[in-house]
């Protein structure tokens, strides 16, 4: 009996085995459930459902069949997520959020195509020992992002067509064998330390590679020459000394960094298409000469560096040509710095005692920018054809103390950077003017264009800015911790902002023509300040082209104030532009008009004024201030076109302060000859009477023929 049972069981097993021969054992679930936990053999419809299942425990493996999964996957358990095929197992973020968000340790993600999101794979801070390998990550804002995460392995991934390929923030991560292609940024090590990179390839990214940080440890990594950028090796030198790198010894350089190095020579290299063309971090006493640095974010980038020289090099089409940050006692000379999108030379944040001389800086946004730095020396630099040739910026007086002499030029005109000066008149040929810790200075009759500030006053008092043409600057006039200054009679036109005023009060600002600036004064450009924006009545305030006031009483001054910010207001805004004309006797005639005034003349022989006005539409007016010494103001008259054009709304006794008489008159806009005479000439009385009579008859006749 037992022998019969045993024989039957054996025959059944052999029959079953024969049935299975030729069939592949599969991990696939049922057709409608394409996600399987290989440890529990349970099937799920979505990846997230498989992760969240109570039966899914740390250490389990979840297998995902090919197909497209529109999911946001949160991996909060120590799992392995394995895709069937990296080309066809797709997790799609549908252009929002993060596709795979890892908040656990010891997670493995492999074999997926991860696409169309803000971030493809995000490993949260303090999560560690994760493995991201053999994935295709495409069309995300960031492909792989490690947020202060450590001891992860990022291996053999294809990362393409993202804005940022990989951003690594954390320590002791390993990146090996990855291919990062066609992104704006390739691989970025950002505030990271002690990471290891090998056999990574970065191709056709706008900026293939960079390392960025605030301290030396952020730049200490193991990055060997097996890493390639467009087929060229990365040379990442750490703690090296006395090495020469040139076109003979290193004919192909994909990226070059000197970290904690001393006495390195870099000559005749071409460095392109990285975030930093050349990175120097905590490196000293090195020589960089005759290099071509092109199409990077930062051409040559110095962080925490001393006593280096950068010379005779071309910095072209970067965002910044040369950037110094916390770097001092460096020399930059005889470089050609052109067509950089943000700044040619940028000295930033405690970069002191550097020298720039003999550089040619053209066609950048900012030419030279010294921000929050001090005691730098500039000589013989030619700065031309930049949007804003020159800028100095900071918070304290120290940030504005530099040695910048008139051998520096902007658009061919000397820079007058005055420090600790008293009672001087700035020369008429200045192209840029800064008054730093000065008193009693005068800036008059200059054309100041294409700088950060047309005129900048810093810790300066009791100075006068008058009759200048200030145009096409970022800020027309800058006042920083300055008081008691007078700013009047200037044309401030076509700047981004007309004024930048910080912690500056009791300045008087009037009779300026403030025209077509991109932004009016506001709380963003005026802070912690209280100034006077007019010269009282009848003198008036400023002309603001963005202000459409009314003048019901026909006196050339608006009926309502121009509010600038808080208590700062122009109480007497002008209804037309302000002009001031010198006479043969040395006295000025001031005029406010909405017409163009040309060919002003004063005739001392008969004490008369002649001028021409023109305008296209509507009615024009003139408000004229005449010194008593120029004519007998007790009986003033205005004649337009020898009496052929009527004088409208005339008021010849508008105001008199004992030294000046203010008059007002209007006319229909056209081109007119204006005569202002001290008394009405008798030879004109009869002709004018005849003309007036004729006009009256014509008007009367028209009314009665209708």
Summary tags:
single chain; 706 residues; mainly beta; Pectate Lyase C-like; 13-stranded mixed β-sheet; 3 helices; elongated
Could you walk me through the main structural features you see in this protein, from its secondary elements to its overall organization?
This protein is mainly β. The protein has four domains: 29-205, Pectate Lyase C-like, CATH 2.160.20; 226-384; 412-575, no CATH class; 584-681. It has a 21-stranded mixed β-sheet that branches. Strands 28-31-34-37-40-43-46-47-48-51-54-57-60 form a 13-stranded mixed β-sheet, with no helix packed on it. It has a ten-stranded mixed β-sheet with strand order 2-1-3-6-9-11-13-16-19-22. The N and C termini lie far apart (140 Å). The relative contact order is 0.03. Residues 1-29, 682-686 and 699-706 have low confidence and may be disordered.
Q: What's the SSE blueprint?
A:
Blueprint: H1 2-20, E1 35-37, E2 42-44, H2 47-52, E3 61-64, E4 67-69, E5 73-75, E6 80-83, E7 89-92, E8 98-102, E9 108-110, E10 113-123, E11 131-133, E12 136-147, E13 153-155, E14 158-160, E15 164-169, E16 174-176, E17 179-181, E18 185-190, E19 196-198, E20 201-203, E21 207-212, E22 222-223, E23 228-229, E24 232-238, E25 241-246, E26 255-259, E27 262-267, E28 270-272, E29 276-281, E30 287-289, E31 292-294, E32 298-303, E33 309-311, E34 314-316, E35 320-325, E36 331-333, E37 336-338, E38 343-348, E39 355-357, E40 360-362, E41 366-371, E42 377-379, E43 382-384, E44 388-393, E45 403-404, E46 409-410, E47 413-419, E48 432-436, E49 442-444, E50 447-449, E51 453-458, E52 464-466, E53 469-471, E54 475-480, E55 486-488, E56 491-493, E57 497-502, E58 508-510, E59 513-515, E60 526-527, E61 543-544, E62 562-565, E63 568-570, E64 577-582, E65 588-593, E66 596-603, E67 608-614, E68 619-627, E69 637-640, E70 648-656, E71 660-668, E72 672-677, H3 685-705
Parallel strand pairs: 3-6, 4-7, 5-8, 6-9, 7-10, 8-10, 9-11, 10-12, 11-13, 12-14, 12-15, 13-16, 14-17, 15-18, 16-19, 17-20, 18-21, 19-22, 20-23, 24-26, 25-27, 26-29, 27-30, 28-31, 29-32, 30-33, 31-34, 32-35, 33-36, 34-37, 35-38, 36-39, 37-40, 38-41, 39-42, 40-43, 41-44, 42-45, 43-46, 47-48, ...
Antiparallel strand pairs: 1-2, 1-3, 23-24, 46-47, 62-63, 64-65, 65-68, 66-67, 67-72, 68-71, 69-72, 70-71
